[in-house]
Write a structure and sequence with these properties.
By secondary structure, the protein is α+β, with helices and mostly antiparallel strands. Helices cover 25% and strands 22% of the residues. A hairpin with a 2-residue loop joins strand 16 and strand 17. The longest helix is centred in the first third of the chain and has 18 residues.
């Protein structure tokens, strides 16, 4: 039930811990397999050393016991070599950060994907200007064959998500267009602790999406209203008001990486590390952090009436919910605090039991913990270790193992879930799981 360790090449615990964490995310490995499918036709034996995706796939498959290897300790120096080809100069003898390397890997994979041309050929403009056939029968022609464009080149990696930024004027309540920004990890600051109250992952997430006031912002709507109330010919200055800004999650990824910011600064300006424990759990519910398109009051009753005709009362998309759960304010206490769910709520098939949560309205965006990266030490020196799940047995590759492992470079031992949840996490790797109703819905869509 153990996995291979990784050789420390100097100070490469940052890389070893990240690779062990990524190797416990099956969706990411599956995406790499689809992403690198077109390289199989490449007859060049050195192709693996040219592409980051192939090098990363080979390492992750070996660490997840999907490739036969007799070595108890693997050498991941090939990853640093291929990153240098991508113009990343990462020294293995200096202190590095696992979260920064995660960004290097995701951004390099995106660059590799974008290097493949989306549009293979331009139309032959000359033949269109002087066609050899009549206009009614004209067709587009190219010189040479059209190579097929694979779909996996267009697909984003499973850590890709989108943030929404919402701005509302306090004076006229005018809402600016929603802005979308991409992310590959959620970097959460740890709010100030309240005495006698444990810090949870929910507190960090609520702090991340909490609204903030932005002063002295030009409001086009207030300026327009002011212009309508003045005489013609008078110059109108841009009206500046205070806006309320709030972040939400517009698109949640299949694999969710959460980075807990443990860097802080003292009053003298020196960097400090925050060592406090942030409570997290094996399961994470993200429904209340998901952005929902606002519905106008005039059309809300019509939408509710139409929705009640399509589904039974007290349901949402066929899943039972409470009426108050539809639009829950971000500042209110969630019905389900992340940190109270255990593995006993999972069915034997690995799917999520809807009946296990009568009080939390059957979550749609449910995530299962796959790995935890922990940093020991201070801001100047330290060591990265990883807690990760043991790979599933070969006979049932789709199952999820309940056995946890503690890995420090080339040292691997078994660990308990309680030990994992008691650690001071730096990086958390979650993977989305679907309920039975969602599985049935996906199967129904596939049949249609």
């Amino acid at each position: 039930g153990l996995v291979p360790g990784l050789l420390n090449l100097g100070n490469t615990c940052f890389m070893n811990s990240l690779l062990q964490g990524l190797s416990s995310c099956p969706s990411f490995i599956k995406w790499l397999e689809e992403f690198t499918a077109q390289y199989k036709t490449d007859q060049n034996e050195s192709a693996e050393h040219q592409y980051l995706s192939l090098t990363l796939l080979h390492l992750l498959r070996a660490l997840s016991c999907q490739e036969g290897t007799e070595d108890d300790v693997l050498d991941a120096s090939c990853l640093l070599e291929v990153l240098r080809m991508y113009r990343w100069q990462i020294s293995s003898f200096e202190e590095q950060d696992a979260h920064e390397l995660f960004h290097v890997l995701t951004s390099s994979l995106e660059d590799e994907r974008d290097r493949k041309p989306r549009v293979t050929h331009l139309f032959d403009v000359h033949s269109l200007e002087q066609p050899e056939i009549t206009q009614k029968q004209i067709s587009c022609r190219t010189r040479g064959s059209l190579p097929p464009v694979s779909n996996h080149w267009k697909s984003q990696h499973p850590f890709h998500g989108r943030l929404t930024s919402n701005m509302v004027c306090k004076h006229c309540e005018h809402q600016s267009p929603v802005r979308y920004d991409t992310f590959d990890s959620l970097s959460l600051s740890i709010p100030a602790a309240v005495w006698g109250r444990p810090m949870t992952l929910d507190h960090c997430l609520h702090h991340f999406i909490s609204s903030e006031s932005v002063k002295d912002v030009v409001c086009d709507n207030c300026t327009k209203i002011q212009a309508e109330g003045t005489r013609n010919g008078q110059s109108i200055e841009n009206q500046r008001t205070t806006f309320v800004k709030q972040l939400k999650l517009g698109k949640l990824p299949q694999c969710l990486c959460i980075h807990l910011q443990r860097l802080s600064w003292s009053n003298q300006g020196t960097p400090l590390k925050r060592h406090e424990h942030v409570q997290f759990n094996e399961f994470l519910i993200m429904d209340i952090y998901k952005y929902r398109i606002p519905v106008h009051k005039s059309s809300q009753n019509e939408l509710h009436q139409k929705h009640s005709e399509e589904t039974t009362p007290g349901t949402k998309d066929g899943i039972a919910v409470k009426p108050s759960d539809a639009e829950q304010p971000s500042g209110t206490k969630p019905l389900f605090m992340n940190g109270a769910c255990t593995s006993s709520f999972l069915m034997s098939s690995g799917t999520f039991s809807l009946a296990a949560f009568p009080e939390c309205s059957s979550p749609v965006y449910l995530y299962r913990l796959m790995a935890v990266v922990v940093h020991h030490g201070d801001m100047h020196s330290g060591h990265f270790v990883t807690y990760r799940r043991s790979p599933p047995p070969p006979k049932s590759p789709l199952s999820v193992s309940s056995q946890w492992l503690w890995i420090s470079d080339d040292t691997v031992r078994k660990a308990s879930l309680q030990e994992v949840l008691s650690s001071s996490a730096y990086l958390l790797f979650y993977e989305r799981v679907h309920s039975r109703v969602q599985h049935q819905s996906l199967e129904l869509r596939a049949e249609q």
